[in-house]
């Protein structure tokens, strides 16, 4: 077994609902990792170039483990590469937050703030789920994403308490990102079935804790948590923003130009 992968599941243990759930988590990590890769050679400093690259690598590592497991759980035997490179836009089930364009550095920080606080809580709860392989993954991933959260927290405070311009940009970034955060906690029929069976926890109960933690960071930054008048949704059902198509085209370009190619 390759490092970072989850153990094989025998055919008799195929679980379509769990496969869909794992695919969602894998898509979140893959798409956000791809977005962060777009900062390479474009970050404000060399240190940030390296920091964002390392965060992206962690996320893509999570995606590889989760999507490979999804291919075993759904009985198709698809690999992580199959999931990443051969699906259409509508087949991706990531939350819309993860596909938002990077914008300026403050927008990326705000997106990371919302996502990382959610991901740590979600993976910590997953570490106690009934599936031992997912539980082990959740425990490891929570520790890794905690470093991503620390990075986002520090930059939120730095920008909020920096210059008038940096504070303005951070405020605008929070307002840009916040309508997309609620989708992370949505509970649909799939999640209700899995939670009712005790297979995995629902993310819905995590929202109050998440809000308390991000509010603490935003307040320390001298800013206020936005109160959006609308909430984005649809990513879990394959409905994406118009910026998603170019992102996936970029991700899949080499594979589509050289199908079956090996290096």
Automatic annotation (TrEMBL):
GO terms for cellular component: cytosol. GO terms for biological process: phenylacetate catabolic process. It comes from the Bacteria. This is Phenylacetate-CoA oxygenase, PaaI subunit. It comes from Streptomyces griseoflavus Tu4000. InterPro entries: Aromatic_CoA_ox/epox (IPR052703), Ferritin-like (IPR012347), Ferritin-like_SF (IPR009078), PaaA_PaaC (IPR007814), PaaC (IPR011882). Transmembrane segments: none annotated.
